[in-house]
Specification:
single chain, alpha/beta, Immunoglobulin-like, five-stranded mixed beta sheet, 18 helices
Length: 474
């Protein structure tokens, strides 16, 4: 996993107490006052992510992040659309510097961009030091032996490199790093069209599945890419279409896949089925209406905890934040400390949710429009502003300064989880939810946009509605 990281210095390693707490002390000049979050992969099949923690960068660019980790993890630091990555080990402290964005590569502000990360390394055996040292040797190998790859006879060179690397790092007793070497080389072999039987025997057969190791899963995903689609087109695998599209049967699909020579292991076969179902939801190999029930069966019938988690993540990715899907639940305090839940506020009304913070200029400008909207639609629309400021005190101060803002204000005390659930990447953010708790618009129109028209459609007498959000005259 290549990273944009610089080495600053090598000093003796320092460990914290046995709480397995990870601390990241950082500097992020040019990002002052922004939020920085720590994200990890939820799984490498659905490619969903989850946030571990977040903090605010102060006025001089300093930040502090703390979270727990039981094992080595590959994490991503996110500041708006700027991302950088590193490995973290339990009980370790890291000193990092997030570099400013490179204007030559930062062209589209709506897409995530890698920014360089400088780490003060503390030992030559620290995982970031090891992976960077190996990455350099790997890159040098590709450069020196480029001709072998062009001539399509790279395997002897790869075998020699593999032997050399295992010998060079033979004294390193780090299972994660050993897997890093093994599966970066495996991925290289897969790209050179090495024999499938050889690859399977060397890297998958009888080997543990490393669900949370990005290098292993990168190889796994490449090796089994379009496996279900290709197998269903063969004579041996043709019954797979019947089992999934017609019967919607998880057990039936598993039985058909067992005919494949690479899928004799029950655990591996089920993971390949999950991957294939996720692919087919988007590529049309099987009917979407059949794919979802089969994945739901895996959630309820699988004996493998990791597969249940992956299956649930896949299902969430299908339905999350779409019109008609259930809005994530929240229960948050108001300025007085009284809690209000989504179930409570949506009981008899539509809910217009606004995420903001008091330092967001556009948030404050948009908020000026809400009083007139509330005056017109307040009987049928519940307005809820959710403060994402650092403390509830900021919400109290905001309310004191704006006494005319008389709708419901809540404070997000979920340490970033609610923003994650609503996939909020920037503020302000708007959502429209119906009395059944389902999204009507994701995202919703802004107060000064077309939301007036949407509210009109929702609240006018039945029989006159021409479709929520349609821009027709009335």
């Amino acid at each position: 996993m290549k990273k944009s990281i610089f080495i600053i210095a090598l000093v003796s390693i320092h460990f914290l107490c046995p709480s397995q707490n990870v601390t990241i002390k950082g500097i992020a000049k040019t990002y002052e006052y922004k939020e920085i979050g720590v994200w990890i992969s939820n799984d490498y099949i659905s490619n969903t992510q989850k946030q571990l923690t977040y903090s605010n960068i102060d006025s001089v660019g300093n930040f502090l992040l703390e979270f727990n980790s039981k094992e080595i993890q590959y994490i991503t630091l996110k500041i708006d659309k700027h991302i950088s990555s590193l490995y973290v080990e339990p009980n370790a402290t890291y000193e990092v510097m997030v570099m400013p964005p490179d204007s030559t590569t930062y062209q589209n502000p709506n897409l995530e961009h890698d920014v360089k990360l400088s780490i003060k390394l503390k030992s030559k055996t620290e995982i970031n030091s090891l992976t960077m040292d190996y990455d350099k040797r790997f890159d040098d190998f590709l450069t020196v032996d480029y001709k072998a790859f062009v001539s399509r006879v790279p395997q002897p060179k790869i075998d020699s490199f593999k032997t050399a690397m295992h010998g060079y790092y033979s004294t390193v007793k780090n299972n994660y790093f050993n897997a890093y070497i093994i599966y970066t080389i495996a991925a290289l072999e897969e790209k050179t069209k090495a024999s499938e039987k050889k690859l399977f025997a060397s890297y998958l057969s009888g080997k543990p599945i490393l669900y949370d190791n990005p290098e292993y899963m990168n190889f796994f995903n490449a090796f089994f890419k379009q496996k279900l689609n290709n197998f269903s087109l063969s004579k041996l695998g043709s019954p797979l279409i019947f089992q999934i599209d017609d019967r919607g049967s998880y057990i039936g699909a598993m039985e058909v896949l067992k005919r494949d020579v690479f899928l004799q292991n029950d655990t591996l076969r089920e993971l390949v089925l999950l991957k294939g179902l996720y692919e087919s939801y988007y590529d049309g190999t099987f009917k979407r209406t059949s794919v979802v029930p089969v994945i739901q069966q895996i959630v309820s019938e699988s004996k493998i905890e990791e597969h249940i988690r992956i299956a649930q993540n896949i299902l969430n990715s299908f339905s999350k934040l779409k019109a008609g899907s259930v809005a994530p639940f929240f229960e948050l305090p108001d300025k007085a400390g009284l809690t209000h839940s989504l179930d409570e506020v949506r009981a008899k009304k539509y809910v217009y949710v606004i995420f903001y913070d008091a330092t967001c200029t556009s948030c404050l400008e948009q908020m000026k429009v809400i009083p007139s909207l509330k005056k017109t639609y307040g009987e049928r629309i519940q307005f809820v502003s959710i403060s994402t400021d650092k403390t509830n005190a900021e919400l109290k101060n905001f309310s004191l300064k704006n006494p005319k803002y008389d709708w419901l204000f809540l404070y997000d005390n979920t340490n970033g989880q609610l923003k994650n659930n609503y996939e909020i990447r920037s503020l302000p953010a708007y959502f429209l939810i119906n009395p059944d708790g389902k999204f009507i618009q994701v995202p919703a129109e802004s107060p000064d946009g077309d939301i007036d028209r949407v509210f009109y459609d929702l609240t006018k007498p039945k029989g006159q509605i021409h479709g929520v959000g349609d821009k027709k005259n009335h």
